[in-house]
Amino acid sequence: MRPTETLNRGNTVSTLLRRATVAAATVLTGALLAACSAGLQGAAPAATSGDLSDVTLTFGFQTADYPELLKASGKFEDLPYTLETPVISGPAQQIAALNSRATDVGLVGENTAAFEADNADEDWSATEPRVYTIAGVSAPQAPNPSPSLFVRKSAGITSLAGLRGKKVAYNFGGNIYAGYVKVLADAGLTVNDIEPVQLPDNQAAAAAFVAGKVDAVVSGYAQVKQAVDAGDAVRLATNVDLGVEGGAGFITRADVLKDPAKVEAIRDFFSRFSSLYRDWYPNNEAAVTGVYQSVLKQSPELAKINFDNGAVTRFYKIGDPAFVARQQAVADAAFAAGGVKHKRDVSVVFNPIIDPQTVPAS
């Protein structure tokens, strides 16, 4: 776990260094904490006194630009609770952090909870989910959509079916994994028909591709730009082609959703976060690209690419039946490709409890 940025009540900002170790995991569902009583989905917890001064909300992000963007936006000043924002790279590590109670909410993919459900020993549709997706963002109009499938020209891959026998890099647990299993399913392939190369996170998978160590990768243009611009690689399919939402999803545990004060803090956080994407981010290109350049050490060109994608990023409703149906299709594709253990009803893991905050009525 990297340094944790803490935004305290009254707009006091300090940096804490945590020595907590977050163990990476491949399939973590069996170890997830037991959740609480049934009937949780979409339900509102008991009312609070309104005093959140004793609440600490720990929100895991995957890259260090997020905490800096929260500060730069000015939308997270004077919080009525304490917000901690540890940087934990990769969906698998985010799941481990949530499982260990090191975090309350984690940034992953919108499919992550569904994959956990399909890998669980018990059927969560008959018992109760142990992890929920409560929010998500996507950018369907992004100029450089992610996740996308990129292939090296030297591999001679001209169709999805051409991946047979090839080395394909990916990382487990989030949107990249969703794109990976959907590529295989759409090609009529399984994990046994290719040489899977699982890496800890998207950055590592993209680096292996750019270095020529694998034939294909599911990633984003910004991560593989060097190979594409050099004429060594091409994009073969986008997330839209694959039916994958893209963007990001946010997960939490059932016990967090049963804590009225935590839920109130989460609602407040996502109301501000949604406003950041709608109102602040698209209108502050210099501030955003400045964060990308200073924190992520991106070139001005790469920072601009990421800004253009982020400028059209918006939250969507987790309770939208069409969205849930798309997630079921991705989960079923994962099973067909041999990427998860079971084929189950995953609709139970999508909890619309904060839809009013993420997608407020106009």
Can you walk me through this structure?
Pfam families: NMT1 (PF09084). Keywords: Signal. Residues 145-267 form the SsuA/THI5-like domain. This is Sulfonate transport system substrate-binding protein. Residues 1-34 form the signal peptide. Helix content is 35%, strand content 18%. The protein starts with a strand and ends with a helix. The chain contains 13 helices and 13 strands. The protein has an 8-stranded mixed sheet with strand order 2-1-4-3-5-12-6-13, with helices on both faces. Strands 9-8-10-7-11 form a 5-stranded mixed sheet, with helices on both faces. The protein has helices spanning 65-73, 91-99, 112-119, 175-187, 202-210, 221-229, 239-242, 254-257, 260-280, 285-295, 300-310, 321-336, 355-358, and strands spanning 4-8, 12-16, 56-60, 82-86, 105-108, 131-138, 148-152, 167-171, 195-199, 216-219, 233-237, 248-253, 314-315. The protein has 2 domains: 4-139 and 247-358, D-Maltodextrin-Binding Protein, domain 2, CATH 3.40.190.10; 148-242, D-Maltodextrin-Binding Protein, domain 2 (3-Layer(aba) Sandwich). It is globular, with a radius of gyration of 20 Å. By secondary structure, the protein is an alpha/beta fold. Residues 10-39 have low confidence and may be disordered.
Q: Indicate the structural class.
A: alpha/beta
Q: How far from one another are the termini?
A: 39 Å
Give the biggest beta sheet: 8 strands, mixed
Order of helices and strands: EEEHEHEHEEEHEHEHEHEHHHHEHH
The domain tally reads 2
In terms of per-residue confidence, which ranges show pLDDT below 50 for 5 or more consecutive residues? 10-39
CATH superfamily of the largest domain: Periplasmic binding protein-like II
Provide the spatial order of strands within the biggest beta sheet.
2-1-4-3-5-12-6-13
CATH topology of the largest domain: D-Maltodextrin-Binding Protein, domain 2
Would you state the CATH class of the largest domain?
Alpha Beta
Mean pLDDT: 88
Coarse morphology: globular
Give me the number of helical elements.
13
The rounded Rg comes to 20 Å
Task: Report the CATH architecture of the largest domain.
Answer: 3-Layer(aba) Sandwich
Helix content: 25-40%
Strand content: 15-25%
